[in-house]
Design brief:
heterodimer, A: Thrombin, subunit H, 6-stranded antiparallel barrel, 29% strand, globular, B: mainly alpha, 82% helix, cell membrane (chain B), cell shape (chain B)
Chain lengths: 260, 172
């Protein structure tokens, strides 16, 4: 076969593959390929997470010591709060019984491992090794260590793509814990988050916890996203802005939970 | 047999790139090993042998990324054609300098399209953000260029081994 015909053949095959993808015909084959490489991806992702964990352990040993002391102090405070909450729970249970409240929790948690990271330098997305076969739905919230990390944007039979909250295109309706302030948390280029659209009248300050508001129904209410690191107040602006530190550690993502 | 082994290796390279290396991308120094290895293959191997592999690597990368499907397929096909053009019209040498130049050009092309896709998705972007992205991605491109130098001894060892084997079969 001469060179021109050979090039035409390969380019035609490429166009057919792309066409079949957008027609949805090749989804099963693509799923199978991803399923085959997924175990290797999971092992490698776990391995890299371990390297990063030990690296940060070595580089932050001094900081860890002071953090440890701080955590001990916080732990003591939390212990006393738990005792208070236990009491509140008992009271709450009694009240529920009195009101005949039906506890109908249909929340389904599906654990999954990260098998791949998006190769783009700007987009922040990961692939997980569970898909529609395991009951995952498009739009489901994804949690790591108790904190919201993203949502499912693309679904295959045995895998799913998760758009992380730190992606520049991500935008989540939120509230600030302990206040009436609400706004939008948006992903930033370079692994950060910003809180936007908070009306000037609302009082927000450093250390405030950001929770999902549940507006729009895309994410359940009350999932922790992060903490306010710095309030960027402009006197002439209608809205306030703040830098938010994500609660989840995106550098060592390994296992996640999908909320259905 | 050669196609089967190369296909498995390229799928493995794409998997390693998207799991082990990309998980370190917050450091900003992640070389695109998949790209570097593919460029070596194109520069050192015969065009007819290497060109179909642009489909393999393109499909693998497209499946594993969240971007527009077909982007990597088209990118690797165009890259193959460009390298073939350079080999035939500018210099046929299987040289490291050709690998480095192609790595640099293709890395910056990838950066340009990534930036373009973000601008289109966000419908506008600030100049400060563009500068941040450009800085971050230029470091990534530089890392790929450095990687192309590091990978050379490994690639040459594999290449000369396969060439020697080919010779043995020929003389038998």
């Amino acid at each position: 076969m001469n060179k021109k015909k050979f090039i035409t053949l390969i380019v035609s095959i490429a166009l057919i593959i792309i066409f079949l993808h957008y027609k949805g015909v090749s989804n099963k084959v693509e799923g199978k390929l991803q399923q085959t490489t997924s175990p290797i991806g999971v092992v490698l992702s776990e391995f890299s997470a371990k390297i990063k964990f030990y690296y940060s352990l070595v580089t932050h040993i001094g900081q860890l010591q002071s953090e440890n002391n701080e955590l001990k102090k916080t732990n003591n405070e939390l212990q006393s709060k738990i005792a208070e909450l236990d009491e509140d729970k008992r009271e709450n249970d009694n009240l529920k019984k009195l009101l005949r409240f039906s506890e109908d929790s249909k929340v389904n948690w599906i654990p999954a491992d990260i098998s791949a990271f998006d190769s783009s330098n700007i987009r922040q997305a990961v692939t997980i090794n569970k898909g529609s076969k395991d009951g995952i739905k498009e739009g489901s919230s994804v949690i790591s260590e108790g904190f919201l990390i993203g949502k499912v944007i693309e679904l295959r039979e045995n895998s799913a793509m998760v758009l992380l909250v730190i992606d520049p295109t991500s935008s989540i309706p939120v509230t600030v814990q302990g206040t009436l302030a609400s706004g939008l948390v948006k992903g930033q280029i370079g692994f950060g988050l910003t809180l936007e659209n908070v009306p000037q009248g609302e009082k927000i300050s450093k250390g405030d916890i950001i929770l999902t508001s549940g507006l729009g129904g895309e994410f359940p209410r009350g999932l922790i996203i992060g903490k306010i690191e710095e309030v960027l107040n402009k006197d002439n602006g209608i809205f306030q802005q703040a830098e938010v530190r994500p609660a989840a550690d995106f550098k060592i993502l390994k296992q996640v939970l999908i909320v259905n | 047999m050669w196609y089967l082994i190369s296909t498995i290796i390229l799928i493995l390279v794409a998997t390693i790139q998207n799991s082990l290396f990309e998980s370190f991308k917050h450091i900003g120094l992640i070389p695109n090993f998949a790209l570097v290895i593919f460029i070596y293959l194109l520069v050192y191997e015969d065009f007819k042998k290497a060109f179909p592999l642009s489909l393999v690597l393109g499909i693998a990368m497209d499946i594993m990324s969240t971007g527009i499907f077909g982007f990597y397929i088209v990118f690797f096909i165009l890259l193959s054609l460009t390298i073939d053009f350079i080999k035939h019209n500018i210099g046929r040498s299987k040289s490291l300098s050709l690998v480095i130049i192609i790595t640099a050009i293709s890395s910056f092309t990838l950066i340009f399209f990534e930036l373009l896709s973000v601008i289109l998705t966000l419908k506008g972007i600030g100049l400060t953000s563009i500068v941040t992205i450009m800085k971050q991605l230029s470091v990534g491109a530089l890392a790929s260029i450095v990687a192309s130098i590091i990978v050379k001894p490994l690639f040459q060892a594999i290449y000369s081994f396969s060439e020697r084997n080919k010779g043995m079969v020929h003389y038998e």
